[in-house]
């Protein structure tokens, strides 16, 4: 029998035996509390952020593995700023990140980004900042990208 894959989005460190996981895992006869406990342990660093997870169950042996995805870039930016949403208009500014905070987010997203270097990933994060109405070191993110490309700012 083939493995069963259950995909869900849970809040970091707060998965429960209720929907969506409990009803999907119940018919498989696995240790639901054990799975929930492992998910919460693996996602606690993302507390307050919704995280994609996959539970892969072998129905024959009841063994399972858990894969934790990466939170969205915008979710990490909002968590870093302590805000709930990005800008509603293109002229609105909802916050300001330091370049160090942008680097921290870029490092957290390293495995799921296409950039080969930290500078490439930082520029991608800055692009998301621009669309969310978030500045970097009190300047427009596009200005910061130009400064990085010109070598004026070292990443």
Furnish the topology, listing elements before pairings:
Layout: E1 4-11, H1 21-25, H2 32-43, E2 50-57, E3 64-68, H3 73-81, E4 95-97, H4 99-108, H5 118-132, E5 134-136, H6 141-150
Parallel strand pairs: 4-5
Antiparallel strand pairs: 1-2, 2-3
Helix pairs in contact: 4-5, 5-6
Question: Can you put this structure into words, describing what you see?
Answer:
By secondary structure, this protein is of the alpha+beta class. The protein has two domains: 4-68, 2-Layer Sandwich (Ribosomal protein L11, N-terminal domain), CATH 3.30.1550; 73-150, Ribosomal protein L11/L12, C-terminal domain (Arc Repressor Mutant, subunit A, Orthogonal Bundle). Helix content is 39%, strand content 17%. It has six helices and five strands. It has helices at 21-25, 32-43, 73-81, 99-108, 118-132, 141-150, and strands spanning 4-11, 50-57, 64-68, 95-97, 134-136. The protein has a three-stranded antiparallel beta sheet with strand order 1-2-3. A hairpin with a 6-residue loop joins strand 2 (50-57) and strand 3 (64-68). Helix 4 crosses helix 5 (118-132) and helix 5 (118-132) packs antiparallel against helix 6. The chain is elongated, with a radius of gyration of 19 Å.
